[in-house]
Amino acid sequence: MASVYTTEITSESIPSDNPIHQRLLKAYVVAAGYVQGNLLEVGCGEGRGIDLLLPKITSYSAIDKIEPVINSLQKKYPQGKFIRGNIPPLSVFESDSFDSIVSFQVIEHIKDDALFLKEIYRVLKPGGLALLTTPNKPLSLSRNPWHIREYTAKELTELAKQFFDEVIMKGITGNDKVMQYYERNKKSVDKLMRWDVLNLQYNLPAALLRVPYEFMNRLNRNKLKDSADELVMSIQHEDYLLTDSGETALDLFLIVRK
User: Fold this and answer.
1) What is the dihedral of CA 206, 207, 210, 212, to 10 degrees?
2) 8 A C-beta contact, residue 63 and residue 91
3) Which residues on neighbouring strands pair with residue 254, listed in sequence order?
4) Would you call 182 exposed, middle or buried from its count of C-beta atoms within 10 A (0-12, 13-18, 19+)?
5) Among candidate residues 223, 51, 209, the one with its CA nearest the CA of residue 144
6) pLDDT tens profile 189-221
7) pLDDT per residue over 233-246, tens digit each?
8) Are 148 and 134 in contact (CB under 8 A)?
């Protein structure tokens, strides 16, 4: 399953990915305090936080498009139900089926984000809760060609309010250690972007940017680790913090209820 890992699908086993892995893991740590009953994960990826969620719920279901990963997770977690499928819609699930839904770092990849949220609303039971994370656009360091779009806290809140009556926007930020890494990363990315005098990152189609983006992103992460190995490897999920201020967070943390 290691072959699926890229700088977009980070791995806990790649040392230079550690700060990002811990950042993504934090969403599951927080979610464990919210979820209950029948849980659906929309876009489970490589199963980063399943172990944190299982003790809190009655049943676990997941859907993702990467078939080898789904097959591997089904073997690892035979008590769960793993479905291979493109999303949206969530047509394999009946309406009013789940008490809780989590979908972390997924909506930015979805072309029809309105249908995505509409489907989450549909399959939630009345009173059910959904948790979503996505990068906070103002703090992104460059264009990510794997993302259809990114959101400000206001934009995602307004979109969610089209479908959910109860919408709470929080965020995941970092302590001084995390922000030190962020600032070093930003400085490094800014140096790389100086070579983009034609602003190609925004003017070229995303498909043409993915290979160079992956190469440069991996090069940059490895450089940051080599120059500050102690900092990179010392960051843990405890260094990321849930905040009520989504506007200034690294990731938006959206809480909605049907």
Assistant:
1) -100
2) no
3) 132, 169
4) middle
5) 209
6) 888 888 877 787 888 888 888 888 888 888 889
7) 999 999 999 999 99
8) no
Give start and end residues of each alpha helix (H) in 33-144.
50-53, 67-76, 113-123
Q: How far is CA 78 from CA 49, 66, 73, 129, 140, in A?
A: 16, 18, 8, 25, 37
Residue 151, classed as helix, strand or coil, is strand
The residue ranges of every structural domain in the chain are: 2-257
Residue with tokens 């740590």: 29
Distance of alpha carbon 222 from alpha carbon 209, whole angstroms:
20
| Tokens coding 176 | 């001084």
- Does the domain at 2-257 match CATH 3.40.50.150? Answer given as yes
Burial of 55 (0-12, 13-18, 19+ CB in 10 A): exposed
